[in-house]
Amino acid sequence: xxxxxxxxxxxxxxxxxxxxxxxxxxxxxxxxxxxxxxxxxxxxxxxxxxxxxxxxxxxxxxxxxxxxxxxxxxxxxxxxxxxxxxxxxxxxxxxxxxxxxxxxxxxxxxxxxxxxxxxxxxxxxxxxxxxxxxxxxxxxxxxxxxxxxxxxxxxxxxxxxxxxxxxxxxxxxxxxxxxxxxxxxxxxxxxxxxxxxxxxxxxxxxxxxxxxxxxxxxxxxxxxxxxxxxxxxxxxxxxxxxxxxxxxxxxxxxxxxxxxxxxxxxxxxxxxxxxxxxxxxxxxxxxxxxxxxxxxxxxxxxxxxxxxxxxxxxxxxxxxxxxxxxxxxxxxxxxxxxxxxxxxxxxxxxxxxxxxxxxxxxxxxxxxxxxxxxxxxxxxxxxxxxxxxxxxxxxxxxxxxxxxxxxxxxxxxxxxxxxxxxxxxxxxxxxxx
Length: 433
Prior knowledge:
The structure is a single chain. The protein is of the alpha+beta class. It has 3 domains: about 5-135, Two-component histidine kinase, sensor domain (Beta-Lactamase, 2-Layer Sandwich); about 155-225; about 280-430, Histidine kinase-like ATPase, C-terminal domain (Heat Shock Protein 90). Helix content is about 55%, strand content about 15%. It has 9 helices and 11 strands. It has helices spanning about 5-75, 95-100, 140-180, 195-225, 225-240, 245-275, 285-305, 325-340, 400-410; strands at about 75-80, 110, 115-120, 125-130, 285, 310, 320, 345-355, 355-365, 410-415, 420-430. The strands form 3 sheets. Strands 6-8-9-11-10 form a 5-stranded mixed sheet. It has a 4-stranded antiparallel sheet with strand order 1-4-3-2, covered by helices on one side. Strands 5-7 form a two-stranded antiparallel ribbon. Helix 1 runs antiparallel to helix 3, helix 5 runs antiparallel to helix 6 (about 245-275) and helix 6 runs parallel beside helix 9. The longest helix has about 70 residues, at about 5-75.
């Protein structure tokens, strides 16, 4: 049987059937024990005593009257016999009854009419034999057991449904996920083992979807963005071979190779940032120290662009997350600000904590971004037309990497024009006390 429904139902019914058989056996045995070894012997002894007294005090007539009343009251046939098997009430020969007893006195004997039991005095002078149409057998209460069986069977079916239905639904969900529907989820609300299994599948599906989506996006982005660099690289290589100034052509070739390497490195960095969140290191670290170290590292690049970075911390700030991812996110925003800052300009970096979240502000004094394009600057490979990307040579991935890294920390990143310059604000939750 491959169906959980069938297994649960059959197993439950089989268990019930065995239980009922055991109950019937125990009931019959208890009836025999309690009835024929306790109540019936006492009642039989009383009837025997009264029958002897009726015969000894009133003869056959009084005994016959007593036997008739007793037969009517007990719905049975009573016979008081002497040592010669003669019926003392009617005078009939009851040798056949003695033969049917087979010497099993004081024991119930099953007969076609029901059952019979007999007892006699120690001296053998009298014997009382009782024939009763009543017989206690295990199947006497079979209709009642059948009703119990039916009731339990009806109760077992909802149990099978309660266990089998969610498993079948989960199986269908897994099949659809395996066929490529990466958005399908079990979304079980149960709190038992089946609900735990469905929750484990949902978490696994979330991670697989994230990995596959990141891989697909990487392939799409690479195939789209590598066309132009490869074309320029091919042209530069041709110039090295045929151009009049080979040194200049070689320098251009090296420049195109460096751009291509930067593009590939940025693509890999962005994919790692969003592809496998569980593989990153999550621990508590000091965000203020991380930003201070990052500003020191970027100060050399800022000096080369003839600008400066001013960091304004506001006390220690601790958070839980991947420090390397957070460093990449903030560094990409700061380096983006350095690239677009004019000479002798200042880049302000601020850090403050309030209401369980940290806020990092990075502002440059560059040309800013057109208002209708601000929402797009965090998309991969998006470049602003005009002066903001005229000479930077960027591939449009820095802010996309920052956004994805911040999102992995359940934070947010946004930008707005400050006239002059662009202000990028990062908000991330802090460590709980």
